[in-house]
């Protein structure tokens, strides 16, 4: 009798597992069709973004839109540009703060600035700049090191809306306490409050910090290199891509660096497993700073 019960339990378990696998396969098909439709109709390429990242953002948008299936979401975004705009914002990576990971900026001061002092002019590309907090941070650092006047910072993101926010240079006033702590930990040399003025509930950063900054739209998934840079900062962007797109971007960044140029990555990123690993030497392995050697 117990043997029959065990066999029946096994059959039930198999049917459940088969159903789960079928649902996963259907979800994968629907997501692929959604991303392909977005690419063909709007020109935005999310096809090589990391699966878990896409799944979270897609299901969050479905709940917000009260939609039951991914196919229904596809129909909506292809026929309603407003819905596409919302999903595009969901796919954009906008997690940032001023002097984020202060150790990175401190290492930049001590290990990269001496190299930059030797250059007659400096071109720096900040990839995936989001709303601009880290761009202003770098401008402040270079100003304090006496390098800002000979620097041109190219700050790019695929999202035009966040670029407009970055250009405005206004950030919530309540975040200044955190940003001040980050600034001091990053080796700041003056009072952080000197760089902004309070206006209502916002801190408005002084315009001189963006006089040498060019904000422009650039999509790592589809666009090519547009200059040669002494420094490229691409932090906490690659973690959202799959291996195929990661390697493609690594080659784009490598081709965009001048000889002996510096690449800065995020704390959870690195070139150890990239196919261009032998093209760099470590400047600071903990803070993920690398120098191009070939």
UniProtKB/TrEMBL annotation:
Pfam families the UniProt entry points to? CheR, CheR_N
One GO term in the molecular function aspect is: S-adenosylmethionine-dependent methyltransferase activity
User: Where is the signal peptide, in residue numbers?
Assistant: none
Q: Which domain of life is it from?
A: Bacteria
Q: Which keywords fit this entry according to its UniProt record?
A: Methyltransferase, Transferase
Q: Which GO terms describe its biological process?
A: methylation
Q: List, for all copies, the residue spans of the domain called CheR-type methyltransferase.
A: 19-271
Q: What is this protein called?
A: Chemotaxis protein methyltransferase CheR
